[in-house]
Design a protein that fits this description.
Blueprint: H1 2-27, E1 33-35, E2 40-47, H2 60-82, H3 87-110, E3 113-121, E4 124-125, H4 131-157
Length: about 160
């Protein structure tokens, strides 16, 4: 039963991602910025490339970063439906899927991903990101932690 609660997070995170991006598109021009404090701004940037702006020049990258995430999302949907797994792994894969769907939506309808959270220290900036990116990052981080824990458990048995 808890499995479905985790799966229910997918549309919730997707909706949160859509609402936040809609507000940015509506209220802040592209390249606009609202300084919140000395290390955080709300910005409106368009990412044509991959995670954290990798290959942000467009061209073939635009198609690669639409097709590959769609394939990943399809595989994740299959895994979540077909296999029984721990709650933590279901949560992790659900977060990754929710984030992937949010960014796929942007790429399909806008041709780029809307990023708006900007962290920095002085002139050092972390690439702008969004709610979908947070979901994917937390999901991947959780999988890494699960694998580390499983590895340690396996080592202690030997």
């Amino acid at each position: 039963m808890r499995r479905y609660a985790f799966l229910a997070l997918i549309p919730v995170i997707f909706a949160l991602d859509r609402v936040t991006k809609y507000l940015i598109i509506r209220d802040l021009p592209v390249w606009g910025e609202i300084k919140v404090n000395s290390f955080f701004s709300i910005v409106h940037v368009r990412n044509l490339g991959g995670v954290f702006g990798i290959l942000n020049q467009g061209g073939y990258a635009r198609y690669i970063f639409l097709i590959v995430p769609v394939l990943v999302a399809l595989v994740l949907i299959y895994i979540l439906i077909r296999y029984t797994m721990s709650d933590a792994r279901t949560l992790a894969l659900s977060l990754i899927l929710a984030g992937a769907l949010g960014n796929i939506y942007d790429r399909f309808f806008y041709g780029s991903v809307v990023d708006f959270l900007d962290l920095y220290y002085g002139s050092h900036h972390w690439p702008a990101f969004n709610v979908a990116d947070i979901a994917v990052s937390v999901g991947i981080g959780l999988i890494v932690l699960l694998e580390i824990a499983a590895s340690r458990k396996q080592c202690s048995r030997n």
